[in-house]
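User: Earlier you gave me the apo prediction for this protein. Now I'd like the version with adenosine-5'-triphosphate bound, so I can compare the two side by side. Same sequence as before, with the ligand SMILES added.
Assistant: Got it. Here's the input I'm using:
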Amino acid sequence: MDSEQLLGKFITVEGPDGAGKTTLINGLTAKLEASLKVPLVLTREPGGDPIAEQIRRIILDPANTALDPRAEALLYAASRRQHLIHTVLPALTAGHLVLCDRFVDSSIAYQGYGREIGEAGILAINEFATDGRQPDLTLYLDITAEEGIRRIQANRSEADQNRLDVETIDFHQRVHQGYQVLREQYPDRIQVIDATQSPEAMQDEALRIVQSHFPQFFA
Ligand SMILES: Nc1ncnc2c1ncn2[C@@H]1O[C@H](COP(=O)(O)OP(=O)(O)OP(=O)(O)O)[C@@H](O)[C@H]1O
Ligand SMILES: Cc1cn([C@H]2C[C@H](O)[C@@H](COP(=O)(O)O)O2)c(=O)[nH]c1=O
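And here is the structure of the complex with adenosine-5'-triphosphate:
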């Protein structure tokens, strides 16, 4: 986020399904709070605001098999706008550290590449939704599509798998490819963490990256 009025910092966590984003965020939160000088705001996309959470339920409902790919992309962007305006920007204005599970990169990877809508169209609707705002730092959890889906199938009942989790392996491989393109486009913003490490090792690495990017936020 590069607006001068925003005193806080916006960190996103990205990666294929099953990469361990939720696990990382939970563990990293405890480690950050031990030494952070400012409040930490945890949030997620789609969701992170009451109306955005309602949109999330529509998008992820496995019963919504007829959802058109562009309608899906627009719903993610609508949810993102609501979340940005009502949760993220107020926290950044107040000087908080915002840690968000997914943001625009997910739309590029999943809708742009996974659904094969293309990067340009997804960028255009997200430019409108976010006024072109980008995270200050992105932690990308690096794992293959196959291993991510294996983890989900091994650990989540079918009833707990969402409409995207149950997509084909080809879809998840295209998503992974989309993330590789993003890593090449934004090598400074996107910091890569090997997601085949233990959860504890991943959390320690993430903490080191956040502290080195924003030392002013730590005691
Ligand atoms: N470093 C790890 N090594 C092995 N298994 C892990 C690791 N991190 C998480 N897992 C397991 O993999 C599964 C998926 O983890 P998690 O829910 O954190 O991923 P996620 O990226 O948030 O997934 P999704 O995007 O689908 O919500 C869980 O069962 C979790 O226990
Ligand atoms: C923000 C965003 C998300 N997705 C996908 C990625 C996941 O499959 C689900 C969200 O589920 P999670 O358990 O919270 O990771 O939605 C997407 O396709 N496009 C997006 O912009």
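For your comparison, keep in mind: The two ends are 23 Å apart (CA to CA).
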